[in-house]
What does this fold into?
Amino acid sequence: MLSGLGGDPFDLLVVGGGASGLGVAVDAQTRGYRTLLLEKHDFAKGTSSRSTKLVHGGVRYLQQGNVSLVFEALRERGLLCRNAPHLVSDLGFVVPRYKWWEGPFYGVGLKVYDRLAGRLNIAPSRMLDRKETIERIPNVQTESLLGGVIYHDAQFDDARMALTLAQTAVDHGATVLNYFSVVGLLKEAGSVVGVQAVDGETGREWEIRAKVVVNATGVFADEVRRMDVPDGETTLVPSQGVHLVLDRAFQPSDTALMVPQTDDGRVLFVIPWHGRVLVGTTDTAVDRADIEPRPLPEEVEFILRNAGRYLERDPGESDVLSYFAGLRPLFHGGGERGGTKSISREHSVIVSDSGLVTLVGGKWTTYRKMAEDTVDDAALVGELPESACITENLRLHGWMARDDPDRPHESHLEAYGADAAGLGEFLRAQAEYAQPLHARLPYARGQVVWAARHEMARSVDDVLARRTRSLLLDARAAMEVAPGVAALLAEELGRDASWAEAQVEEFTRLARGYLP
It folds into this structure.
């Protein structure tokens, strides 16, 4: 990747390696534009690895009357199911009914949801009786339970999706680099013509020229915009969402529970994921963006309290295997700051007087449409040759049909798609590689080496938080395997013992923040 930095100016340079930036890189490169992406930390280190793991239309946006957003998201959900079947799968959601009027109320609303999805709908919603509801949600609160309504959305692994987008961009010729900070913008005659950047591993400084620069840094977009206009207005209101990870016993089936009304008017999800149960989320306004946001005690209590109302066996703080927080990059749009639930989840593309193109807002489900709109505008700014977007029908790296007989059945391997066969051979090549990473984790030791060799993993955090999801599945187990992971990485990357020791200390400090 480093060798790709030389030569003529890039057509398009993307700052930011989360969902937004990676989507832009894929779109731009597949149009034939020579593209470079620079990420200060690791791909999806921030918000993009901390979502609810859903590709969804947004039932609550329908409740708010935002039909256009739901329609767009449902269409994008359908395209993702088609273009990345190895990463995106069907998930049924049950809304339990305790009052007679909840049946027609939720039933009609979810039929509208089905209708908006059109021919890309996953499966129709339908009513469930009491027995079916308990079969689907064995731990559901049964007192006064009348039945439920089931509808369908899709589920994915967000960090693995981000990595897949990076691999897709590279497959088509893009250059992508993690741990490469943009520290300033290059300007000529008042126009942005590139960036000043620093290689975080070597400290080497670079001046990289491009016909157009896209700022796709999510919650940090205003920081990059102020490199262009120091006194520029604030466009984003960061909002924090927290999730708790529990043992599978709290929802032992393959169906999710949707709590339709919490104390603050949000919905709450109890979702099976990688052999665990994910519960969330909250919506808390925060004053500043942080690369490692931390859950607040009141957010944890809120989730436990509201989930407990719908579960027979109530979860407590001691049941939390891990928790994490992510920041939503909500587009402020210059209006009065209020509750974040009312701020639009839609995206916006802003072009400054100097030609800096900034993508703000949006969500994982609509990343492809966000990228298409951004590259359309960037191509005009950079006077790039006209070229149509092709991502509607673009199969992502590792594409594998759902009914392929060679498709792996373990959820942590499914996300590798067509690469899973090569990974399997790699793990069988050495007895040590096939050994379990930890008794409470689904991964093998060889996946650490694979991540460094094939997936640009550069640190223990990269491996345990994003190449595998160990940190989210069981933070204590992740801390226990950190020394072994550091030793494997040090050997693979040519690092010494002091580097490995520092990595363990740094990761352990970080991982403690994932436990109450």
